[in-house]
Amino acid sequence: MLTEKTVQVGEVTVNFAEGPPSGPPLVLLHGGGDRWQYLLPIIPSLALRWHLFALDLRGHGKSGRVPGAYRPEHYAADVVAWMDRHLAEPAILFGHSLGGWAALMAAAQRAEKVRALILGDPPLNIERFWAIEGSEARIVMW
């Protein structure tokens, strides 16, 4: 149903899966510690109506690892570069948790590429999250 591909965007290789063009584009971004396959239970239903793209965020799944570059702005930059290269029309962005951060920041940078934004449980208070002792180390371990 989905074809897995990789593409170089900036400093990192991004792994993503693409479904048949059954409708408008829908980009799926997983949460921290997961990979695009986390979304497999909902993909068959979504693929009936949408042209699906499911990305592995940097440091996750088959996407590349970049030492020390795992802050929200890094994930967002990857998503923006990927959208610039792969979206011919505005897409719906869905992001869960860490993917929600990336989706929100990418939408702010490329509003013309985003038809709608769906956020699932994003940790929106970024400064507070980074202030928690050990939070950055946990992100890097993912």
What do you see in this structure?
With 142 residues, the chain is α/β, with parallel strands linked by helices. It has one domain (3-141): 3-Layer(aba) Sandwich (Rossmann fold). It is 32% helix and 26% strand. It has 5 helices and 6 strands; from the N terminus they run E-E-E-H-E-H-E-H-E-H-H. The protein has helices spanning 43-47, 72-86, 98-109, 126-131, 135-141; strands at 3-9, 12-18, 25-29, 51-55, 91-96, 114-120. A 6-stranded mixed sheet has the order 1-2-4-3-5-6. The longest helix has 15 residues, at 72-86.
Quantity of strands, as a count: 6
Strand content: 25-35%
Integer count of domains: 1
Strand order of the largest sheet: 1-2-4-3-5-6
CATH topology, anyone?
Rossmann fold
Shape: globular
Distance between the termini: 27 Å
Can you tell me the residue ranges where pLDDT is under 50 for at least 5 consecutive residues?
137-142
Biggest sheet descriptor: 6 strands, mixed
At the fourth level of CATH, the homologous superfamily is Alpha/Beta hydrolase fold, catalytic domain
Content-based structural category: alpha/beta
Q: Roughly how many Å is the radius of gyration?
A: 14 Å
Order of secondary-structure elements? EEEHEHEHEHH
> How many helix segments?
5
Mean pLDDT: 90
Query: What is the top-level CATH class?
Result: Alpha Beta
Q: Which architecture would the CATH scheme give at its second level?
A: 3-Layer(aba) Sandwich
Helix coverage percent: 25-40%
